[in-house]
Amino acid sequence: MAATDPLTALDRCESLGRMLEVTAGRHPRRKAVIADEGGIRYRELDRAANRMAHALDRRAGVRPGDRVAILLGNGVPFVEAAFGALKAGAVVIPLNTYLTAPELRYILSDGGASVLVSSDRFARTVRRFSGDLPSLRTLVTAGREDLGGDTRLREEFIRGMPASSPDRHPRRDDLSILIYTSGTTGRPKGAMLTHGNILSNVAGSGRAIEIRGRDRLLLVLPMFHSFTLTACIFMPVAVGARVIVVERVRSLRHLLARLIMRRVTLFIGIPHLYDMIAASGLPFWARPLLRLRLCVSGAAPLSAATLERFAARVRIPLLEGYGLSETSPVVSINPLRGVRKAGSVGRPIPGVDVRIVDGEGRELPPNESGEIAVRGPNVMRGYHNLPRETKETIRDGWLRTGDIGKMDEDGYIFILDRKKEMILFHGMNVYPREIEEVLYAHPDVAEAAVVGRSDRHRGEVPVAFVSLKEGGRARPADLVAHCRESLASYKVPHRMTIMERLPRTSTGKILKRELKNGPQD
């Protein structure tokens, strides 16, 4: 790598705010973010972030380490607010826009947010808790509606503030993001990520996919998600690429239109979107108009069936990666050049170590299943206000992911399942993902999820939920018979439920907890 390579320069960069300043100096007139409401160039973005940083300091009393929460939809205001808070030395708490008022209240209270940046879209929800949080001193709105408490209009809040860089200079070891993970049970936990955590992950991820300054990245995932923050905001900003924001994908035709009209070269999405593309393929008229060089899938598992259909019908490289909020978040990805193994989430990105361990933390040999453990500069500092959980999760510098997997002799990682989702049937391990892969191979199946249900005699039994493709006619008995052809008898679902659609999170993950806790037999 040349010394002028921006990703190499991140090794010496002290903070995410400084990263933006360097890019703005190199590419002042290049568009940074393009959205439906308009775009912003890198120099303008840096200046807007500086004004927000000064306003947070002078008008909201934000000090280094204070928490600034952001409850905004996708768009330029989110990016400005995030970089502004980071430049002020604050810790950003990105809030899931799909949460209810009690859920948001818990996160804001636990995180100790002193400022909330939001908009009219969420005003009714915010007013339900804004007067009931002692730590929340200031509310800044990008709209016009009152959020309750001490509400400031964004235009008035930043008016008259200097566009120069603030005097505060966070360091790599300072906290930058406090991101709350949903987890499988209990209250969400705040993963504490430093500037160094994210900068190292941006550098490693960028090298793995060979991101370029001239890339045009289509952003369709919610900005509050850890994968979006690193892969779709911080990574393109590091090299001066363009981020093209789409608030919502309405249809395959709508997605293709944005890819073509915006001359997108890099698309980072979730499996649900690739399922949609793979099912239909590309229309004959779209293929010669696309400039897409690479697709990346993350945030949820990608089925082998989808990967095979995508490769056959679309013929654009689709790389599946793996990560979690606690690792900033990217851990591994299939290589852009070289062998890509179906069913694998690839090899660790540069700078990250992975090993498979048993219950005692001993490293297992190739192709043996165990818990995935991760070590590297991307691993979080710990969970906010949860020292016991931190100690249980990070042991001797290795983060226990809670995911069950194996690593082959070439260093490729294969995810088998979540440790907490593993089903124990008569003392035998049953991995839901193995059953789901079999179901996805059925030509009528669009979605599949397998969970464990308590059984008095057998401990737990697997039960399956599926939705069918348009025109699909498979019956539950047909799908059970299909499973019997590929699975041992104890792995075959004891109940098969066909639904119109499976419940999903905002990032496309199937809500297995909702299915698990649904009506029992």
Spatial separation of the terminal alpha carbons: 60 Å
CATH class of the largest domain: Alpha Beta
> Can you tell me the overall shape?
globular
Q: Point out poorly predicted stretches.
A: none
Q: Gyration radius, to the nearest Å?
A: 23 Å
The biggest beta sheet is recorded as:
9 strands, mixed
User: What structural class should be given to the helix and strand makeup?
Assistant: alpha/beta
Count of DSSP strands? 27
Q: Determine the CATH superfamily of the largest domain.
A: ANL, N-terminal domain
Count of domains: 3
Please state how the strands of the largest beta sheet are arranged side by side.
2-1-11-10-12-13-14-15-16
Q: Please identify, by name, the CATH architecture of the largest domain.
A: 3-Layer(aba) Sandwich
pLDDT averaged residue by residue? 91
CATH topology of the largest domain: the name is Rossmann fold
Number of helices: 16
State which percent range the strand residues make up: 25-35%
Helix content: 25-40%
